[in-house]
C-alpha cells in the first residue's frame, strides 16, 4: 500500500514487470519488440513498486500517412534523471518505431539492447520513458498519462508548439514530478503553488518552501478561507448496456463516480456515509448496495475505512473525484427500444421504432437521443413521431430522434420512410441503435448518501448539497436488419 499523499490512489489494479511482459507476450515478435498490449490509463503509480525511470523525452510526432516526410523529426525535450543511460539512446526510438509500424500494430514497449522504451502518443507528441530497470510497466504508463494531465492543466493544449513555447516551465515540472527516477508530486494544484505560468521570475527575500511541502496533507493548502462554507456532492452513474438483436442482454454494468466540490475554510475533516453493502455489512442494515472495484482518492484514510467502513478524509480545495465503483449485476434497461426495419428492394426502406421508459413514474429522462442507423444510399426522408423531433444526419447515416423530456412508464413511436436508389449497393454492416439520456435525482443502483459530517476546529457550519444523476454510457441495442 502506498503512502497517502504521494500517489493519487492507494489501490493498485495491476502489477506487471517488463520481464514478465516480454516473457508472456513477447513471443512471435522480432527481437527486442513486444506484442501490443493495452493498459488502463487510470492505473495509479507507486514509488516503491515502480522501477526508476532514467529519462523522459518529448519527441515530435510522425504523421503515419507519410512517414518519409518526417524522417528529420527530433527530440524536443530530454530530461536525464540518473545518468545511467547515454543520451544518444533516444535516437534509436524513432527508427524502431517506424520499423515496428511497418510490421503491424505498434507496441507500447520495445527494447534496444538492455534499454527499455515505454511510450504513449498524445496529439502530435510522443512521451517516452527510458529505463534499464525491470520496473512495473503499467505504473510507468500511468505516470506518463499523469504528466500529460499536469501539462494540460498548465498549457491547455499539449502539442509540439506549446512544448517549445514553454520549455522552461516544462523542465521545472519534470524536475518536480520525479526525483532521481522516483515519482514525486503529480497533483497539478500543488505544483501550481510554486510553479506558475510566470514562475521563472525571482522573488526578493529568503525563499520559503510552499506550505504543502512541509504539510502532512500535501493535497490541501493551509490558510484557505471562504465567506460561505459549502460542499457539493455529485453521485453520477453511467449505464453501459449491450442488447442482442433477439432482445437478450449481453452486457450490463454501472460505473459510478462520487465527485465533490469543496468550498470550506481551514483544514476540515469530512466523514461520508453511503448505503452500500461494504460499508454497512457489519451493522446488518437493510437496503444496502454491493459495490465492486472501489477506488478512492488519496485523501481517504484507508485504515479508518478498513476498521469501521467510514469514509473519512481531509479534502482538497475545489473539485475532485472522491471515489469510483462498478456494479456488474444485471440491470434492467432504463430505456427499451424495439425496432422494425423493412427494406424493399430497389424502392424504399420503412423504419418503425418504439421507445419505452422502464423506470419509475416519478423520474424523468432528459435530453434523450435515439440514433437509428439507415442505409448510406437512402434519401428523401419522411418522419412521423408521437413526441419529440426526428432529423436525418446523412454524414452519419442515422436518424436522430430527440426527446427533450421522457417520463417514466411512457411509450413513444417514431416512423421513418426513405427512398432507395434503383441500383442495389454492396452489403453494409449493421450498426446498433444507440441511446443517450440523463435522469436527475435517480441512481440505478439505489446508492444514497446517508450523511456527511464536517468537522473543523473553528466550529463553523457548512451546507452540504447532494445531486444524483444517472446517464447513458455505452448504451447499444442491435437490430435484425
UniProtKB/TrEMBL annotation:
Entry's Gene Ontology BP terms: intracellular protein transport; vesicle-mediated transport
Location of this chain's protein in the cell: Cytoplasmic vesicle, Clathrin-coated vesicle membrane
Cross-referenced CDD domains: AP1_Mu_N
Keyword Transport attributed: yes
Membrane spanning stretches: none
CC per GO annotation: clathrin adaptor complex; clathrin-coated vesicle membrane
Keywords of this entry: Cytoplasmic vesicle, Membrane, Protein transport, Transport
Domain of life: Eukaryota
Bilayer topology annotation: Peripheral membrane protein
InterPro entries, per database record: Adaptor_comp_med_subunit, AP2_Mu_C_sf, AP_mu_sigma_su, Clathrin_mu, Clathrin_mu_CS, Longin-like_dom_sf, MHD
The keyword Transport is annotated on this UniProt entry: yes
Domain annotation MHD: ranges: 228-478
Gene3D superfamilies, per the entry: 3.30.450.60, Mu homology domain, subdomain B (2.60.40.1170)
Coiled-coil regions listed in the entry: none
Main localisation: membrane
Biological function: Subunit of clathrin-associated adaptor protein complex 1 that plays a role in protein sorting in the trans-Golgi network (TGN) and endosomes. The AP complexes mediate the recruitment of clathrin to membranes and the recognition of sorting signals within the cytosolic tails of transmembrane cargo molecules.
Family under the similarity heading: Belongs to the adaptor complexes medium subunit family.
Protein name, as recorded: Adaptor related protein complex 1 subunit mu 3
